[in-house]
Write a structure and sequence with these properties.
- The protein is of the alpha/beta class.
- It has one domain: NAD(P)-binding Rossmann-like Domain (Rossmann fold).
- Helix content is 37%, strand content 21%.
- The protein has five helices and seven strands, in the order αβαββββαβαβα.
- It has a seven-stranded mixed beta sheet with strand order 3-4-2-1-5-6-7, sandwiched between helices.
- Helix 2 links the parallel strand 1 and strand 2.
- Helix 1 crosses helix 5.
- The longest helix has 12 residues.
- It starts with a helix and ends with a helix.
Length: 131
């Protein structure tokens, strides 16, 4: 899988599990991507209405666009549901952040036509390949 190709082709990113806490990885990655990329960023978290003035959507289905890439910050037991939502909105890439690995989700995602990236940090890869 060509990570550089994925990152270059991506235009819209949904961050599932976005946190208003600046100490959380999802917040740090959102801040980085806002500053270092041209991606349209969408934050998803059903328990938060906004983060630093940016609207937060309760689910992927509530986004005003179909994201190219869904970047996931959820516990492993939530991944099958996130996969189903990702497929339902027509995203192209499911990106599981560092520490997230699920072979069944990867197989199911690939069978549904998704490119699946597991156990990688989009910030690190973006900075390394495109920064």
């Amino acid at each position: 899988m060509d990570l550089e190709e994925i990152l270059r082709e991506t235009r819209t990113v949904a961050i599932v599990g976005a946190s208003p806490n600046p100490d959380r990885a999802s917040h740090e990655i959102w801040t980085y991507l806002k500053a270092a990329s041209d991606y349209e960023l969408y934050l998803v978290n059903p328990t938060v209405d906004e983060i630093e003035g940016t609207p937060v959507y309760p689910s992927l289905a509530d986004l005003p666009v179909a994201p190219d890439l869904v970047d996931v910050f959820r516990r492993r037991e939530h991944l099958p549901g996130v996969l189903a939502d990702t497929v339902a909105v027509g995203a192209k890439v499911l990106w599981l952040q560092l520490g997230l690995w699920d072979e069944q989700v990867a197989r199911d995602g690939a069978a549904a036509g998704l490119r699946v990236v597991m156990d990688r940090c989009i910030k690190v890869d973006h900075a390394r390949l495109l920064g």
